[in-house]
Design brief:
The complex is a heterodimer of chains A (about 375) and B (about 425). Chain A is α+β, with helices and mostly antiparallel strands and about 375 residues long. In chain A, about 35% of the residues lie in helices and about 15% in strands. The longest helix of chain A has 23 residues. The N and C termini of chain A lie far apart (about 45 Å). Chain B is of the alpha+beta class.
């Protein structure tokens, strides 16, 4: 059943102006793009599953944003949201993804052989390597909108499929609501456990409903391949390991994803994908590849250099603290990852990270030796 | 269950085949026209109520105690005339399992009709919460004649302040969990227009939460009038914090003894208060103010939600009937140390809270003492109960001061039959 304030027909008793949200103090992509005209055009529409414009924008209305960080401010409730509400979402996507146009095509490339190098990032600097993405199962509503029945169906489907993985991918599922204290502690120690969202950005979109029903964590016995079920997306898929062998991480990532996709297809399901938006996920920021490839890397000298920000920008990389988004770096160790998601293929993005991190490490070594890095400054990618 | 499910959706195989042939957009087209985006009606067939029934095994709230798979199956696909559903009513109770010692309600109404359309759930919840009150057979008495109250001026050596609060909903507009922005703004408009008509000691001013100046905000905080965006997950999971602070505000009279919250947890919360022990005057102002506001909205064709089964209709079933909490801040240094304190309060049908309100601890020896009940007794009855109870507590305190012993009073009967 549809979730949230979906009595759309009742709202039509009021004029568009009377319903229009007050976005005067807001700073997010949705608030920048939404106009009274767009609101009026879209407010009587619904996706086939009943998701409405107000459902889409609620999180952006409730969270005015931050003067320095630009949040997206809207979420999809199902695959069709991106069609039915394209008048709003196309400009949001364009704004968020570096000018990506409604007519642009997104290339998917999950062939790890196309990655050049990446197996020898200097382990004296690169502490760990990780690639993550998300996948949505076609035909089901997304986390902001799904019913308990749908969410459980996705969980069952995931368990069935993941149980058939073998070799180094063989693993086990831990449902959030059933796990023992011991299992929970182990998952925390492995840094695998995800908890009920506390961010108001997520809560206001409705994705924490019925927690922890239908949520869980699957990982392989080697603890290098991990799948989150029904957190912010239907599936989040993560490949990771200590050290700098990004090639191996990406190999496993692609192999695992391809296998999982095949297993789902055997059960009559496919992932949400189209040639314009690539893989379709809940947040417009994760469209395309949904891919974040990153390393934890020691850059104590470079990070203090006044050109650090500029270098990252030109390499199309972003920095975060080692706790993830919105955390601070500890001890000169940064999480460095690709800034883009859409308009570049998976291989292209991982290549950017591999090449970029190699350059950052080279710069760090120069600065250690007291030498200049001016000749190493990259061009804007 | 998983395998029968996969059998149900095996028709997707065609789409999967098309997709694997590389005809991506064709497959999309097929799914979108056939069974991909499940229209709401198809979904109800594919997902029987049993597949949606919440897991309430770890839950301890009135909703979880009352909701059975049979009730859920019957009510899941119903909607109120405003399109509010059962799932929306119970979401807060599903998301908040509760506390082993405190039993929360676990469901809210989205509109007046929720209490009817979902009566099979709300009636047992009401019975559980309100000491056996049966909405199907009983009538709730409303009585706002403050002249009937006696002995309601307390000893100010003990009583520091007196307060009465209730809530009122505007008939025809959805309640805070369900209302659209336009409806919420309409509530604000109706109420603020009416309040502008108050005169004399009730004349006052409205402060919209979104428009107030820093100075106004600080003043309201100093007066202990300001309410903030709810943080309690009990409230946020019930969708009542949407669009904050749009159309929320505080109105108070110039004398700062009559206060109205607009669009917080209910359409309106009405509060009469003053320092000292003159509960008689507090309740008199309360009744007079409420009646005047009601008259002012009626002049414009509006009325409060009320019926003779449930009294005043509010968002949370715990506030039905009178929605009234009358209380004092009272010093009881000796009595509060006496092991019989809780039992005495119980029998007097009173509850204690810290002076910060619900879920706060008492500071020093000062307690917030108020009536437990809301439904099944009138406003006059409940205030008189509180008055008699507080007088009794003060008598106990005085006796203990003199070294005399006290007795636990007999329990007060529940309902007028």
């Amino acid at each position: 059943m549809p979730f949230g304030n979906t009595h759309n027909k009742l709202k039509m008793n009021y004029s568009s102006d009377q319903e229009y949200p007050d976005l005067s103090k807001h700073n997010n992509h949705m608030a920048k793009v939404l106009t009274p005209e767009i609101y009026e055009n879209l407010r009587d529409k619904e996706t086939p599953s009943g998701f409405t414009l107000d459902d889409l924008i609620q999180t952006g209305v409730d969270n005015p944003g931050h003067p320095f960080i630009m949040t997206v401010g809207c979420v999809a409730g199902d695959e069709e949201s991106y069609e039915v509400f394209k008048e709003l979402l196309d400009p949001v996507i364009e704004d968020r993804h570096g000018g990506y146009k409604p007519s642009d095509k997104h290339k998917t490339d999950l062939n790890p052989d196309n990655l050049q190098g990446g197996d020898d990032l200097d382990p004296n600097y690169v502490l760990s390597s990780r690639v993550r993405t998300g996948r949505s199962v076609r035909g089901f509503c997304l986390p902001p909108h799904c019913s308990r029945g749908e969410r459980r169906a996705i969980e069952n489907l995931s368990i069935e499929s993941l149980d058939l993985l073998d070799g180094d991918l063989k693993g086990k599922y831990f449902a959030l609501k059933n796990m023992t204290e011991e299992e929970q502690q182990q998952l925390i120690d492995d840094h695998f456990l995800f908890d009920k969202p506390v961010s108001p950005l997520l809560l206001a979109s409705g994705m924490a409903r019925d927690w922890p029903d239908g949520r869980g964590i699957w990982h392989n016995d080697n603890k290098t391949f991990l799948v989150w079920v029904n957190e912010e997306d239907h599936l989040r898929v993560i490949s990771m390991q200590k050290g700098g062998n990004m090639k191996e991480v990406f190999n496993r990532f692609c192999t695992g994803l391809t296998k999982i996709e095949g297993l789902f297809k055997e059960r009559g399901h496919e992932f949400m994908w189209n040639e314009h938006l690539g893989y379709v996920l809940t947040c417009p920021s994760n469209l395309g590849t949904g891919l974040r490839a990153g390393v934890h890397v020691k850059l104590p000298n470079l990070s203090k250099h006044d050109k650090f920000g500029e270098v990252l920008k030109r390499l199309r990389l972003q920095k975060r603290g080692t706790g993830g988004v919105d955390t601070a770096a500890v001890g000169g160790v940064f999480d460095i990852s690709n800034a883009d998601r859409l308009g570049f293929s998976e291989v292209e993005l991982v290549q950017m990270v591999v090449d970029g991190v190699n350059l950052l490490v080279a710069m760090e070594k120069r600065l250690e030796g007291g030498d200049s890095i001016d000749d190493l400054m990259p061009e804007q990618k | 269950m998983a395998s029968s499910f996969t059998r149900l959706i095996s028709s997707r195989n065609t789409a999967a085949l098309l997709a694997s042939l590389g005809a991506g957009t064709m497959a999309t087209g097929f799914l979108m026209s056939e069974n991909g985006p499940l229209a709401a009606d198809k979904k109800t067939k594919l997902y029987p109520p049993s597949s949606d029934f919440p897991d309430l095994r770890k839950h301890n709230n009135c909703m979880a105690a009352a909701l059975t798979p049979a009730i859920y199956a019957k009510l899941r696909d119903k909607v109120t005339p405003n399109n509010w559903t059962l799932d929306q009513s119970i979401q807060t109770g599903v998301d908040n399992p509760g506390h082993p010692f405190i039993k929360t309600v676990g469901c809210v109404a989205g509109d007046e009709e929720s209490y009817e359309v979902f009566a099979e759930l709300f009636d047992p919840v009401i019975k559980d919460r309100h000491n056996g009150y049966d909405p199907r057979t009983m009538k709730h008495p409303t009585d706002l004649d403050s002249s009937k109250i006696t002995n309601a001026v307390f000893d100010e050596n003990y009583v520091l302040s007196s307060r009465v609060r209730t809530g009122r909903s505007i008939r025809g507009l959805s309640l805070p969990p369900a209302c659209s922005r336009a409806e919420r703004r309409e509530v604000e408009r109706v109420v603020v227009t009416a309040l502008a008509g108050l005169k004399g000691d009730l004349a006052g001013r409205y402060y919209g939460l979104g428009d107030m100046t820093e100075k106004e905000q600080q003043q309201l905080i100093d007066d202990h009038f300001l309410f903030d965006k709810p943080v309690s997950p009990l409230l946020t999971c019930a969708f009542m914090a949407r669009d904050w602070p749009d159309a929320r505000g505080i109105w108070h009279n110039n004398e700062k003894t009559f206060l109205i919250w607009v669009n917080e947890e209910d359409h309106t919360r009405v509060i009469s208060m003053e320092k000292g022990g003159n509960m008689k005057r507090v309740f008199e102002r309360f009744c007079r103010g409420l009646k005047q506001v009601e008259h002012l909205i009626q002049e414009r064709g509006w009325e409060f939600m009320w019926n003779e089964r449930l009294g005043y209709i509010l968002t949370c079933p715990s506030n039905l009937g009178t929605g009234l909490r009358a209380g004092v801040h009272v010093r009881l240094p000796k009595l509060s140390q006496d092991p019989r304190f809780s039992k005495i309060l119980d029998n007097l049908r009173l509850q204690k809270r810290g002076t910060g309100g619900v879920d706060t601890a008492a500071t020093g020896d000062t307690f917030d003492i108020s009536n437990n009940d809301r439904l099944g007794k009138s406003e006059v009855e409940l205030v008189q109960l509180l008055v008699d109870g507080v007088n009794h507590l003060i008598e106990c305190e005085k006796k203990l001061e003199k070294g005399q012993d006290i007795k636990v009073p007999a329990p007060i009967t529940q309902f007028r039959k």
